[in-house]
Amino acid sequence: MSKYGDYVLVTDSTCDLPDRYAEEFGLEVLPMVFLMEEKAYNHYLDAREMSLKEFYSKLKSGVRSQTTQIGYNTYIEFFERILKKGKDIVYIAFTSGLSGTYNTSKIAARDVLENYPDRKIDIIDSRCASAGQGTLMYYIGKKYKNDKPSSEDIIKFAENVKMRVCHWFVVDDIDQLKRGGRISSVTATFAKALQIKPVLSVDNDGKLVNVGKIRGSNNVYDLLIKMLERDGDEIDRQTVIVAHADNIDGAKELKKRVKGLVKNVHIFDIGPVIGTHVGSGMLALCFLGTRKTEM
């Protein structure tokens, strides 16, 4: 068991946690990679290599984006840098339901520990994505900073909380879903004409699932609040996360409507990893409760 101060809490930038919180909580964050115009970019939480404004502008203009998992060598170098300092590692990884990063990190951890037999790397499959993973890291990060728990205690806490994170996403960019092959051209044409917006969630395996659809922008707010009231645990005591993909006006409106129901509301930006697949305009609400995948 590692005491607080003897281990480093790590996650990856798929969590879409604002950089200021990562700094406040003392988290180490692995960048994720996306490809645009035949160039690879590391996405850090501060978006230092490409701003989110530029990313979504390119996406809307038709530039294709691809995502890739964190590589084996990246994990080896990252883990070794921490182990060399005499620290253990607790890594909260992007859901295995959407990426191979978790499995790659396990292999890298096993291999690098051969050279550091006195050190330890614990890796947790978050079963969460994007702002959901950010919600999980917000709660874990606050405990890490405020309670100074042992590695054993932070792992127990993470395992307890992760399956309680509820993700609700409403997609606005039908064209991006079409480009990604998730819907057909005919379906996209009808959906745009009828102002139909797909509703997505994350299941217990950490996979992104299409739950249903709604019509019209105003119904987006009503639906997300309905899911919070239906599935949330003691919502008046919760900090909930409103997240958006290049849709700050929508995020502010949703925050305004949610504010009176909960203890705190924070707004997160959706980064390139999930943004690549859902496009601009998406709104999300993440909170703690009972994870469901039906409307």
In words, what does this structure look like?
Mean pLDDT is 92; it is low at 186-191. The protein is globular, with a radius of gyration of 19 Å. The chain is an alpha/beta fold. It has eleven helices and 13 strands. The longest helix has 16 residues, at 131-146. The protein is 39% helix and 25% strand. The protein starts with 6 loop residues before the first strand and ends in a 7-residue tail after the last strand. The strands form three sheets. Strands 10-9-8-13-11-12 form a six-stranded mixed sheet, with helices on both faces. A four-stranded parallel sheet has the order 2-1-6-7, with helices on both faces. The protein has a three-stranded antiparallel sheet with strand order 4-3-5, covered by helices on one side. Strand 9 and strand 10 (208-215) form a beta hairpin.
**What gross morphology would you assign?**
globular
Give the structural class. Answer: alpha/beta
Q: Number of helical segments?
A: 11
Give start-end ranges of low-pLDDT stretches. Answer: 186-191
Provide the spatial order of strands within the biggest beta sheet: 10-9-8-13-11-12
Approximately how much beta-strand content do the residues carry? 15-25%
List the secondary-structure elements in sequence, H or E: EHEEEHEHEHEHHEHHEEHEHEHE
What's the main sheet like? 6 strands, mixed
**How far is the first residue's CA from the last residue's CA?**
42 Å
For the CA atoms, what is the radius of gyration? 19 Å
Helicity range: 25-40%
**Nearest-integer average pLDDT:** 92
